[in-house]
Amino acid sequence: MDWPMCVLVTGGSGLVGKAIEHVVQKEGGKHEGEQWIFLSSTDADLVDVGQTRAVFEKYRPTHVIHLAAKVGGLYLHMRENLQFLRDNIKINDNVLQTAHDMGVTKVVSCLSSCIFPDKTTYPIDETMVSSFKSLYSPNVAPLNMILFFWQYGHRYTAVIPTNVFGPYDNFNIENGHVLSALINKTYKAKKEGTPVNVCGSGAPRRQFIYSLDVGRLIIWVLREYEEIDPIIVSVGEEDEVSIKEAVDMIAQALDFKGKIQFDTTLSDGQMKKTACNSKLRRYLPDFTFTPLKEAIKMTCDWFMTNYDTART
């Protein structure tokens, strides 16, 4: 790869964007002479093609890490399914087409394990992406990324992380992802002396991955991964835990000793989405993921330090 390069990170103020910024600025992830630009929605509304082109023309990136998306937890997706679909199709199309038009060398996009079918065999792997046919998932929008890669033959690719969490996540109880919402909910219950009410049975199982691990892996993909086909970024199948187990870890991290109760009248969502990380392990057999209990503790500590801004 030729140096120096100019890397534009869309969604740079979000969960994964902030993780990449941390790796670049504090872990030696930036090489000499490189320029890294972390965009937020205040810099450009990527739903608008004009604003998208303007920001690309301003910075003239050689490489793009595309993280910008309309995102949220299960219940927000259920309420606003159509709007998620429409906004994400526009964002992805604008970013990829502009990158193509302006000769960007490489784009690394971020998909979601939710792009896989509801009814499938487990574990899911990268070969199953092209068989996805459901139009009901709000994550159908990223499929235009895959078609874009294949159509033009660029060195554009995508990572597919499972259940990311960490500092700078959306901790909103109603709209946040499961772990971050539960951290806020548990912290609030501790302060108020009330039980923690968990939506669903607690039985669904998930592979949670710490945002800094995702940031490190995305930078590796940008620099070293030469395939066009996506790659799943996940802890191993053996590290999958139930929501109940995750809640117990949160309670321990926050020293919450009250009652935890599960509301089985509310949807569990998918009971499992087990992903296979064997492709990643072929490339990086020695990569060490942050243990879940340790990652939850660090995220809880960050949340408590930043409570006034993070809880909204």
TrEMBL record:
Pfam family, one: Epimerase
Keyword NADP: yes
UniProt pathway: Nucleotide-sugar biosynthesis; GDP-L-fucose biosynthesis via de novo pathway; GDP-L-fucose from GDP-alpha-D-mannose: step 2/2
InterPro entries: Epimerase_deHydtase (IPR001509), GDP_fucose/colitose_synth (IPR028614), NAD(P)-bd_dom_sf (IPR036291)
One GO BP annotation of this record: 'de novo' GDP-L-fucose biosynthetic process
Alphabetical UniProt keywords: Isomerase, NADP, Oxidoreductase
NAD-dependent epimerase/dehydratase domain sequence ranges: 7-236
GO molecular function, one term: isomerase activity
Assigned EC number: 1.1.1.271
CDD domains linked to this entry: GDP_FS_SDR_e
Keyword Ion transport attributed: no
Membership in a protein family: Belongs to the NAD(P)-dependent epimerase/dehydratase family. Fucose synthase subfamily.
Role summary: Catalyzes the two-step NADP-dependent conversion of GDP-4-dehydro-6-deoxy-D-mannose to GDP-fucose, involving an epimerase and a reductase reaction.
Protein name: GDP-L-fucose synthase
